[in-house]
Amino acid sequence: MKILLPANYLDIGNHLQSILGIAKQAGFDTSSISVGTSTTTHVELVGDNLSTTVVATDLFASEFTDDVDYVLFYQHQKAKAELSRERYVAINTRIYLNVIDDQRSMDVWSCNSGSNRALTSASAIQEMGYHFSWFVVSLLLDFPVEDALVLARAGDVSRETWPYLSQHFPTPVIEDERLDIQVGWAVKASTTAFSTMSKASLGLYPVVDSVDWIRTLLELGIKTIQLRIKNPDDVNLESKVKQAIELGNQYNAQVFINDYWQLALKYQAYGVHLGQEDIETADLRTIANAGIRLGLSTHGYYELLRIVQINPSYIALGHIFPTTTKDMPSRPQGLVRLALYQKLIDTINYGDSIGYPTVAIGGIDLNTAQPVWNCGVSSLAVVRAITQADDIPTVIDKFSGIMRRH
Fold first, then answer.
1. Quick one: 159 and 230 in the same domain?
2. Is residue 192 part of a domain?
3. How many other CB atoms are found less than 10 A from the CB of residue 367?
4. 352 in Cβ contact with 197 (< 8 Å)
5. Is a pLDDT exceeding 80 seen at residue 117?
6. pLDDT tens-digit series, residues 302-325
7. DSSP string of 26-61?
8. DSSP label at 169?
9. How does pLDDT run across 360-383, given as a tens digit for each residue?
C-alpha cells in the first residue's frame, strides 16, 4: 500500500511517518505501507488491491479535478448558517473543517446517501497538516470516511498515542435543523436513559432464531440470550416473541428481542436489541420509560460516539470476523480495532460508573474466543458455535471457562 504525495506536500511526510508509527504501536500492520511521490497535485492512496483513493485539501491547492474522492476545506472561514444557506454540504466529496458555530468548531459533510453529517468539538483543529495526515492514514487503514474524520480530530489532540480518551474525541451531531440533520430519535441523553446492566450479568450471549433454542439454552443455564427472527412476515412471529419473553421470566434470564420492539413492549421483554437503522424509527422514549433495556449494534467510532448520546444498556461491537449468519454493511473489524473501541468505551460515563458493558459479535467460535475476550469486552455473542455444536453443554462450559480467565 502506498501514500503518494505531490511535491508541495512533502512536508506532510514527517507527520505521516509519525502517525504510521503510532498505528504500528496500536497493533496495525503498517509494514506494507510506503510513502512516495505522486505525479498529480493531490494525495493518492493506493490500497493493497491497487484501488486508488484521491484526497485533496485547500491547504496546498486551490483547484481540484473531477477524479478527487475527498476535498478537505480548512481555510473557508464559513459559519454553519452560511453552509446551510448555500447548500455546500450537498456535494459528497466536500468536507468543511472548523465550521464556526457559536463557541464550537464543526466538521460538516454529506455521506453517500446524500444526508448531511457533522461532528462538533470544543476547540478548533490545532494543526491542520497533522489533522490532514491523520485523515489520510485512517483512510488507508480502511476506516470509513466518518471514522477517519473522528480519528483526525482525536489524533490532533492526543498526539503521541492512538487516541482513546473520550474527552479527546468529537461528538457526532444527531439533531441540527439548519444542516438538515435529523435522526428521528425520540429520546435524548439529557432527558431519559435506559436501564443499566452490570457487565458480569451478561455472560455468554447466544443469538438464536427460535423459541426451541431459547428453551434449550435457558435449561442449560444460559442467562442472556437474544431471539433474532429474520422474517418479519412470519405468521407466528408474535406468538414466538411472547413465548420467548415468558421463558425468560420463568428462568429469570435476560431475554433480548431483536428488532421487534413493539412486541417487546407489548409483552414487557427484559430487553430489545436494535441496529443502527432501527433506531431511526423505534420509539426509544417509550422503550426507556417501560424499563426495557436497550442493546445497540455499532460498526466503528462514529456510530459508537453517536449512540452513547442516548445511553443504551450495552453496546455491541462487530462484526469481528467474517460471518454468514447476517448480511453486514461493513467489513470485519478484527481484533486490533475491537481492542481500540473497547479502550475508548472504558473512558465513557455509564450510569454512575465509567465504561459501558460491551458484547463482541460476529464469527466468534472456540478458536477465536480467547483473543476476543482478551480485548476487554464484557460478553461474547455466539451463533453457529452453539447452534451447530455436536455437544452443546460442553461448548457452553468451554466458553464459560474462557470468560472466567483474565
1. no
2. no
3. 9
4. no
5. yes
6. 999 999 998 999 999 999 998 766
7. HT---TT-EEEE-SSSSEEEE-TTS-EEEEEETTT-
8. S
9. 999 999 999 999 999 999 999 999
